[in-house]
Structure formats: C-alpha cells, structure tokens
C-alpha cells in the first residue's frame, strides 16, 4: 500500500475505493460551510465528511456545487443521527440528508452512534439491527456506495454481524494521540473494516498539538504537530478526517506524505497519556 497524497485510495471490503484522508466539517458554522467546503475541494480534498447532526449538510452541498468538480470524483459521507434509528426512520432520514446535500447518492452512510444498553436495555441490539437492515436496503438499491458505522466498538460490531447480511465497510471512531483505541483498531481491521479517525488532531480544545513530545517529534521532521498527529494515524492504516476552516491549515493537513515516523516515534506517540478530546465511552453516553 503506497499512499502518496490525500486521494490515494484505500479499498473497502466491497471493492469501493475511498480517499485515504477526508475533510471534516464538525462544528463548522452552517453559514461558513459552503465557503469552507469549496476551499477544501479547491485545495485538493475529494473526500468530505458531514453528518445530519452538524446542521451543515446544505452548506456542504452548496460548497460541492460551487467547486465545480465532477460528482464522480468526490467521496461524500454523512451519518444517521441517533433520533432517526430504526428501519422506517432511517430510510426517511437518509432521503432528507440526500435532499439537504442536493445529491442523488452518497458514497458512504454511517450509523453515527450505536444504541446502547444504558439507554435501551435489551432492545439496543434490536434497534441497531433494524437500523442496519434499512442501511442494507438503501445500499442494495444503489443509493449508497458503501455503508458503515461510527462509534461502534468491536463488541457492538460483533453483535450487529449476528443479523447483518452486509458487513460494514467502515467504522469511524475517535483516534488521536492520548486516545489511541489501538486494540479496537486491530480488531476492526482484522474484520476487514476500514477504520476512520475522527478528531485526529485531538479535536477542539485538546492539548495534543501543544504537547512537548509531539513538538519534539515535529521539530525533528520539520513538520507541525498536526502533521505528526495525522501521520501517526495514517501509519496505523487508519484514515484521518482533519477539520479546518482555514485554507493554510487545510493545505498543511494534506502535506503528510513526504516523511515517515520511525517505529520508536510511533510507539512514543502511542504511549502518550490522555491529552483531552471528547473521549466518550459509547456504552455510557446518554444521547
Ligand atoms: N463520528 C463522530 O462521532 C464524530 C465526532 C466528531 C468529529 N467527527 C468528524 O471528524 C472530523 C474531525 O474531528 P474534529 O473536527 O472534532 O477535530 P480535529 O479535526 O481533530 O480538530 C479540529 C480542530 O483543530 C484545528 N486545526 C485544524 N488543523 C489545524 C492545524 N494544522 N494546526 C492547528 N490547529 C488545527 C481546527 O481549527 P480551525 O478550523 O479553526 O482551523 C479545529 O479547532 C469532524 O470535523 C467530523 O467530520 C466525527
């Protein structure tokens, strides 16, 4: 696997190719989203990650149109929010997402969070199974090129696989220095599921980018701590989704293919303590 730029493809378990770095849009102000997405596409990103709950799908769609790049060259992901779980509701929510984006298909659609036992008791697994059944139907109907999960830990995935007829192609989980999910990544990859890293820079307010160890490694490579963080994600075979509304940072976050972290540097970063981020346990959330 030789990755030379953000659009070098990884291949999903259904044969669909996905650009190895995506552009994130969480907390991008809806009013500023179109401009940011157009700028990201002009900077060279072809893979855009949004979600119904970000309230900016319309802006993403407008930004895509304004960029003037052929739809087939883009890889667009959105996610089903928690209030829309279940067989019928999922199909309705998916169509609304398509309408807001102004698209007639998605490249990837994810269940944003698993229904958990804390909220739903024994019903949780059934809710996830029914939601997935609708995702499978939309996939078979050709409305989505790939379907997947987000914030599902391996035990949620295994439970889902008991009833699934289509194996998820992707699982998007929080991964950054200080919140590694190393065992989960290995387990998901062993299931032939591509892992995407949300919050790959530690998210807003995290201290990943100012950590002295990160700074030392960044200086050694003449790179920024953001670039080191993204490279550390990528070298684990994980697909990072950096978000920035600033063009210089968008470009900086793409420029991660001309250096390599040594095994020692990888291990040093992996051993960092918790540096902040959202760090939520999907079995403990109450939303
Ligand atoms: N599935 C989920 O549950 C879930 C949850 C959260 C996020 N996500 C997805 O993952 C994407 C990334 O996560 P995230 O947005 O939470 O966090 P992130 O990408 O780790 O970090 C974004 C923060 O870092 C700043 N930043 C970006 N590039 C920088 C650079 N080169 N140097 C210094 N600061 C930089 C951004 O500020 P500026 O914008 O001001 O540059 C922003 O404050 C999201 O946008 C979303 O698409 C998914």
TrEMBL record:
PROSITE patterns: ALDOKETO_REDUCTASE_1, ALDOKETO_REDUCTASE_2, ALDOKETO_REDUCTASE_3. The record marks 79 as: Lowers pKa of active site Tyr. Residues 27-272 form the NADP-dependent oxidoreductase domain. Pfam families: Aldo_ket_red (PF00248). The active site is at 54 (proton donor). It comes from the Bacteria. Transmembrane segments: none annotated. One of its GO terms (molecular function) is oxidoreductase activity, acting on the CH-OH group of donors, NAD or NADP as acceptor. Keywords: NADP, Oxidoreductase. Substrate binds at residue 112. Signal peptide: none annotated. SUPFAM superfamilies: NAD(P)-linked oxidoreductase. Belongs to the aldo/keto reductase family. This is Organophosphate reductase. It comes from Ligilactobacillus saerimneri 30a. The lineage of its organism: Bacteria, Bacillati, Bacillota, Bacilli, Lactobacillales.
